[in-house]
Amino acid sequence: MKLLLINPNTTQAMTDAIAEAARAVASPGTEIVAVQPSFGPVSIESHYDEAFAAAGVAEQVRLAAAWRPDAVVIACFGDPGLEAAREATDAPVLGIAEPAFHAAGMLATGFSVITTMTRTCIMAERLLQRYGADQHCRGVHGTDIPVLDLEGCGVETLQQIEDAAREALARDRSGAIVLGCAGMAPLCATLSQRLGVPVIDGVAVAAKFAEALVGLGLRTSKHGDYAPPLPKPFVGWASPLRW
């Protein structure tokens, strides 16, 4: 199967790191095609960033229609453009937050989320409510580490994330940690070993869940609000992306 992996920001190094995390768990017959938008922010740390990132996700799903991926994973914890992507393809489309929440709920009675900027914690809390996972999540904790600082993550940054996770496990009485940023994916194995609890990277989990949905022959419903977008003219830079 061919899996379209979209990094919604425009930083190539992060796209490469995310692709490596997905390929590390992918089945032998799965090809990971990793892409990023042709426009938009270099990192996603606000509602404003996310608005442009969502358009970039839609762009990449539209462009991929030429080769029809079997599944799509949007590798950003805020799930930008998820609904639009599901309209634009009948392939299964997964973000990384929902699969991570579900996996954590299968492995522990309660989990904590460790993310980057504290200002984005409310965004994660809204996703927990949306996906019905708030009953299992015992806390969302920001580290105020800028997303781009995760590139080539140094000893101090890794230690800061580990310390935040240890504090969350103790304070929240949690049994697992969900990493609240796709850029943290390369740290998953190290943190799991150091913390002694399941540490869930949504990129890897989403890739495996996508494989499962494809293996089951399941597609995104085209009945109702996930029906294809209505044809209409687009103007300006978006004109080539009209339906």
Automatic annotation (TrEMBL):
InterPro entries hit by this protein: Asp/Glu/hydantoin_racemase, Hydantoin_racemase-like, Iso_Racemase_Enz_sf
Homology family: Belongs to the HyuE racemase family.
Protein name, as recorded: Aspartate/glutamate racemase family protein
Species of origin: Hydrogenophaga atypica
